[in-house]
Amino acid sequence: MQTIENLNARYAIAHHLSFKESDGLIVAEIDNAHATASICLQGAHLMTWTPKGQQPVIWLSPAAKLAPGKSIRGGVPVCWPWFGPHPTQASFPGHGFARTVMWEVIGAKALKDGGTWLAFRLVPTDATRAQWPHPCELVLQVVVGNTLDMDLGTLNTGSESITIGDALHTYFEVSDLREVAIHGLDGAPYIDKVDNGAQKQQAGPVSIYQEVDRIYFNTGHDCVIEDPAWKRRIRIAKLGSRSTVVWNPWIEKANKMGDLGENGYLNMVCVESTNAADDVVTIAPQQEHHLWVRYSVEALS
Questions:
Q1: Is 45 an annotated catalytic residue?
Q2: What is the DSSP letter of 252?
Q3: Is 29 marked active-site?
Q4: Total domain count for the chain?
């Protein structure tokens, strides 16, 4: 059982990293030369990332609640070992259990370039084994610096192949979603979940003026969120993912959700690096799969 005291004794780094309590949960606080960030040990859930002197890049709802066993609205939820509803067990949690169970810190260090590296490992329980009876290890590595790098690694420690779906369900902060364009998906086929799963094809950049819930396929290249009001682009580079989910609940659904904050839907958009729907990953025994992303900010002249 990791406590704030032993975490700070073992892993705290002056001018980089400390641990604190927030609403009964433990949060890693990073503040280095490049950026600030916060990561909740429940779910290894990165909640915020703000490069120094800039607007926040990762959006956390002002109405987000931290509570044991509950997912946090905003940040970067880790979806694993399935994405969306479980294929056969409707009672299992949507997007898997990784985002609502405890993870342990297994490493932390200050990097030569001024960034901060942390590593977390999911702690299995009887409840998680009942839902996922496959021997494997899940590790999330995070580098907080001028860029935000995240590497979600699944190691199959068993003697049979396993098949997983996963995602970094990232909420990005924007000035006003109605003025934002998402580039990098032109020509990609997608499933429109708002339109009964209709199969469509993207034409040009993605603009959002209503509820959007789409799974895009064949999307290994960068996506870019262009935000003219904040004069910036957020670039999303990735490896180990062939699908991308774009999601915003818009007005009616946001009001029903209750934890997005007033008009919060206008200040966020999810562009998720995923292995979703038919784009799942089979991992052979003693092999591993990595879902890696790098988020960076570019000036928009």
A1: no
A2: H
A3: no
A4: 1
